[in-house]
Amino acid sequence: MIPLSDSFQRFADVQGYLSNYKFNINGTPMKIELFPEFARIEISKGVFKDISLENFKELFLQGIKDAGKELSEELILPPGCFYSKVSTQSIKLICYYPGKVTQVKYQDGLKVVDFTIPLPNMVIFFDIRKEDDSYFVSSDEVKYFVTDKTVDQISSKSPEELRDILKPVPFTNFYSNGRMCFGKNTMPVKFSYNLRGLDYYYKIIAISPFNDDLGVKGMKKHYSCYSLFTALSGKETFPYGDMQ
Fold this sequence. Notes:
Elements: H1 4-18, E1 24-25, E2 28-29, E3 32-34, E4 38-44, E5 47-52, H2 53-66, E6 81-86, E7 90-97, E8 100-108, E9 111-119, E10 121-131, E11 134-147, H3 151-154, H4 159-165, E12 190-191, H5 200-207, H6 225-232
Helix pairs in contact: 1-2
């Protein structure tokens, strides 16, 4: 017989594991009752089986592991993150950055020109690989898009639904598939549980000079990088109506 104090401790431990999870078999919710010395599980309608808390805890942990889920992990996410999907091997994040007036750089040969322009609302997708206790970001798996919506208007949508309504970033340095050309910039690729540094993938937009290598895309009128930044100078908000 397990001593009463140990029994209640096991009971409290298992209760804690259960607090954030719901169980089902083939879409049917499982009925689970916990008692200080055992767990009672409905294995079929009206048929119950009693197992020890120790066995139930082992079965539960193994089931979570097999499903590719983690019980809990403290992660510090970057600002504006409104979607996250975590598994044992990866993390998918979607972050929203509201439009703002900021200074950007345009480089023509050796000459660098500063412009103050309104950036559009931007949505950034991060696909992060997990190895042991570290997280790795590949620049190919960071995708940038533009929206005229507020974060409240899009935060309830799935990633698939978002991709149907988002538009490519209309600036040079961006590919039509959402990738950014980082040039010779050194980007952070390895993180611990603190993912706040992913914010640098947004800040680099104002840090790295733009050029004409990839061309302006997604605007109704034809622009060079220089002419687009000139047209945007002095505006308070990005002109979404001028996008295709």
